[in-house]
Every structure is written in C-alpha cells, then in structure tokens.
Fold this protein.
Amino acid sequence: MRKNRSLLVGLGIGLMLGASMLQLMTAARQQESQLQERDSLSLETVKKDAEGLGYSLLKLGGDTYSQEQLDEAVKKAADKAAADAKGAAEKALQESEAAKPDAPAPSREASKAEKGTYHLYIAYNDDLTRVASNLEEMGLIADKAAFLKKAKPQAKSLQVGLCTFQAEPTFDEIIAELTRRKH
C-alpha cells in the first residue's frame, strides 16, 4: 500500500480537480444560456435591476450637487426668505404708519432693537467648529473661542437640520437650538 500511496494521492487530486472543472463549465454554460434568453438591455430592465440592488439611475447632463453645494444653496435660500420676510414686515409697518397720520413715527432705535430671524442649516458631517464659524459669520456670536468652550460638552449632540435664531440669542439659546431634534 505504501508503494502506491503517491499514485493514489495523485489520482484523488486529479479526480477532485476534474470535478471542480466540470462544475465550473456547467455553471458557465447555464449563465451563458440565461444571458442569451434575456432580452437586450432596455431602460426598464436596467431600472428594475438597479432598484433591486438599492441604486437609482441618473440621466446624463442632469444636475447633481455635492453636500457643500446643497448646504450653500439651502443657506442662501433661507437668508433670502428671511430678508424677504423682513422686507415685507418693514413695508407693512410703513404702510400702517402711512395709514395713521396722527400716530408718532417710531424711532430708528426701536427698529434696530428688533433684529431679524437667522437660519443656519446643520449638515450631517458638520462639526462644532464649522458651526461656530458659520454663527460668527452670521454675526450671532462675537467670540468663537468662548462659544466653543461653552458648547463643547454638547458637541456630539448636534442635530442635522435647519436652525432658526431670533434677534440676539444667548449662548445657551444657540446651544439649545443646535441640539433640538429637527425631525
């Protein structure tokens, strides 16, 4: 038996390799026949296959935006809406003043005390430093370092979505709005 051992090992290995090759050839034939049976690729077929795999199709030449571009567009739209609302409120105030000639005109100091509404969109990947920079650009905080020191314990609690700030909020009011659930 020891004399024939290498012969038997070689024969066993050869049988296993042959069986594996036969399985591969059978699988390739089956796949080829399935491809031939299938119609040529149509848009509906591709859409169906893509949806089945959890993907969606985009047309070439269609507009796609990065997260930064989307955030910027949302911020511009929110700022424009706030400016439009402020302008409409001022116009309504002027019209009401014009309708009441006997009423004294309000001073400019009173209208400056009534600051507008500010909007800030927090994106999924925004961190506290980026949010603080945006708040500083908007004029809601004067000292970024002091805000970061105060808000650092809540840095992991930032919520994605649109934050709305009225007039001149305190650090605590800003932090409460940044951590408020937006959904």
Notes: The chain has seven helices and two strands. Strands lie at 117-122, 161-166.
